[in-house]
Backbone:
């Protein structure tokens, strides 16, 4: 775990300052400020509709904010074209494992590398992602649409890696997966961070997995950040333990008790 006692401005890879985004009249995030430091896994926790996906869409340029700024590697990328943001080294794995269903696994992966022209590097990275997810190598020639949900999630993450990003935005990688698969995916996410030095911003409803994998966490409610701390400390907080970790009746169901309303202040 990274203990962030001293942080210089150079350590900050991504910063959001007072970002607001809306869908027509609906304000989805209201003045979000957060930082992701180089080399860490950061997480945003929050229940259904809190605005987690909206934060990621605003960072990757899919959605233009109505206020505030997004800074990546010290440069303002607010409302830039999504393709340009990818070229700068920031990729987004959206919610719901979007793969190209009619392309085979191999071609899906190559699509992830479309901004690159270092063929040797692409070939090496292809072998590396097959190393992370051997099942994808086995299914190399199969159409992605025929893969299981878990395999599609693996493919979506792998395709993002093929862009050799400095930062990956991961939207609910555990959604709809069995506890066993979820655990496997999170183990790989941590390996990707440690072995490739890839910084990750992870958005999750599965607080248990996210708080164990990540270094630093933000809690989002109704479009606002209501708490932030190291994950080590967040895991110890009473509110988090009761509400997000469901410590009173732990287990698979306990991890997803999100319907209950909770106010933090
Ligand atoms: N395309 C859209 N059009 C209108 N409102 C939207 C749209 N997408 C999201 N919203 C609204 O914006 C708010 C934030 O949604 P968002 O998808 O960011 O939440 P989330 O935290 O990712 O939720 P979930 O855990 O369900 O994925 C919600 O009130 C949602 O209903
Ligand atoms: Mg979402």
Residues:
């Amino acid at each position: 775990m990274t203990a962030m006692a001293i942080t210089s401005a150079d350590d900050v890879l991504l910063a959001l300052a007072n970002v607001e985004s809306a869908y027509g009249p609906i304000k989805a995030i209201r003045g979000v400020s957060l930082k992701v430091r180089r080399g860490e896994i950061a997480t945003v926790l929050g229940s259904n509709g809190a605005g987690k996906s909206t934060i990621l869409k605003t960072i990757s340029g899919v959605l233009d904010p109505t206020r505030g700024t997004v800074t990546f590697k010290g440069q303002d990328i607010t409302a830039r074209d999504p393709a340009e943001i990818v070229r700068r080294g920031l990729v987004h794995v959206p919610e719901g494992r979007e793969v190209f269903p009619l392309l085979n696994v191999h071609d899906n992966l190559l699509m992830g590398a479309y901004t690159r022209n270092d063929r040797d590097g692409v070939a090496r990275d292809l072998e590396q992602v097959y190393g992370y997810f051997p099942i994808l190598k086995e299914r190399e020639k199969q159409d992605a649409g025929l893969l299981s949900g878990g395999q599609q999630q693996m493919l979506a993450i792998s395709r993002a890696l093929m862009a050799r990003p400095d930062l990956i935005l991961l939207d609910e990688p555990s959604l709809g997966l069995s506890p066993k698969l979820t655990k496997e995916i999170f183990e790989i996410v941590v390996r990707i961070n440690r072995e490739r030095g890839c910084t990750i911003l992870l958005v999750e409803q599965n607080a248990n997995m996210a708080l164990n994998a990540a270094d630093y966490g933000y809690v989002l409610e109704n479009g606002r950040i209501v708490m932030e701390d190291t994950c080590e400390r967040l895991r110890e907080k009473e509110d988090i333990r009761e509400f997000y970790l469901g410590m009173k009746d732990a287990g698979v169901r306990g991890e997803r008790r999100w319907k209950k309303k909770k106010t933090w202040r």
